[in-house]
Design goal:
The protein is an alpha/beta fold. Helix content is 46%, strand content 15%. Helix 1 (30-45) runs parallel beside helix 3 and helix 9 (219-233) packs antiparallel against helix 10. It is globular and about 60 Å long.
Length: 279
């Protein structure tokens, strides 16, 4: 299946979702918001892969991972609607923003890890996207900017509730109030990027190597890690400890534990069941 904004490939149990509009700076058009959650949920529901890697076609002279929301969506009313004085404008605006938010929440809610490989500029909605991923790797020429303040907006598709899990509040406030660029080195130093790499080729090699490593682990245990880490972020210690106990009581597979230990001792990849498909 072909998409306006994405190229999709699946190999070695790794799904590679590539933003594919470099001529538009990988801006997020209407079809982007509709297709991304469908793609992610299809990969997850049908257990097509054990890891997702998101990167971008950045063949332009000045690489841009994503320029954020396509301005055509504002002109067409795809974000806010046309007439603020029209009946139901507020309800329509709210409904549209929640729809856009859901597109990125699909990354956080899917059962498998999502790695973002960021080459070039990550602007506005691009920051919303990468903060919804599990792991962020960048090239040294990558940068982020919470750009919405520069066009009279408050970022509303997911940046603030997620980026605060990675960087100090004061730094986030500075970025939000000023819209300044934060380069890759500072992103890594502040904790947003796990690592940075000198070139795009090295970045993609590292992202795929990490994905391959994760893909060798027991999928249900990886899913449990993702689920509990996200849960613990939003709940207290005792509540999370109870949730972990209930999770393992329900989900732990002793035979996979034995296989994991045997594989490690024999210095081979383990043989593990994929996640069950969803109806």
């Amino acid at each position: 299946m072909s998409y306006e904004c994405f190229d999709i490939s699946i190999e070695d149990r790794i799904a590679h979702i590539r933003l594919s509009r470099p001529e538009k700076r990988n801006a997020m058009s209407e079809s982007f918001w509709a297709d991304l959650p469908k793609i992610v949920r299809d990969i997850d529901d049908t257990a097509k892969a054990r890891v997702i890697v998101i990167s971008a076609d950045t063949t332009d002279e000045k690489p841009i991972f994503s320029a954020g929301i396509d301005v055509s969506m504002f002109a067409s009313g795809g974000v806010a609607g046309h007439d603020k004085n029209a009946p139901g404008y507020g309800a329509g605006f709210y409904q549209n923003v929640r729809r856009l938010q859901d597109s990125f929440s699909a990354l956080e809610e899917c059962r498998i890890p999502v790695i973002a490989a960021i080459h070039g500029g990550c602007i506005g909605g691009g920051v919303d996207l990468i903060t919804a991923c599990d792991i962020r790797l960048g090239s040294t020429d990558a940068f982020i900017t919470i750009y919405e303040i520069n066009v009279g907006m408050t970022a509303d598709v997911g940046t603030f509730p997620r980026i605060l899990n990675h960087m100090p509040e004061g730094v986030v406030r500075e970025l939000a109030y000023t819209g300044r660029r934060m380069g890759a080195e500072e992103c890594e130093r502040r904790g947003l990027f796990n690592a940075t790499y000198a070139t795009e080729a090295e970045l993609m090699d590292a992202a795929m190597a990490m994905a391959r490593d994760i893909a060798t682990k027991p999928p249900l245990a990886v899913y449990g890690c993702k689920r509990i880490i996200t849960y613990s972020r939003n709940h207290g210690t005792q509540d999370t400890l109870d949730r972990i106990a209930v999770w393992n009581m329900s989900m732990l597979i002793p035979s996979e534990m034995m296989e994991a230990m045997a594989a490690k001792g024999e210095k081979r990849d383990g043989t593990f069941a994929d996640l069950p498909k969803r109806n």
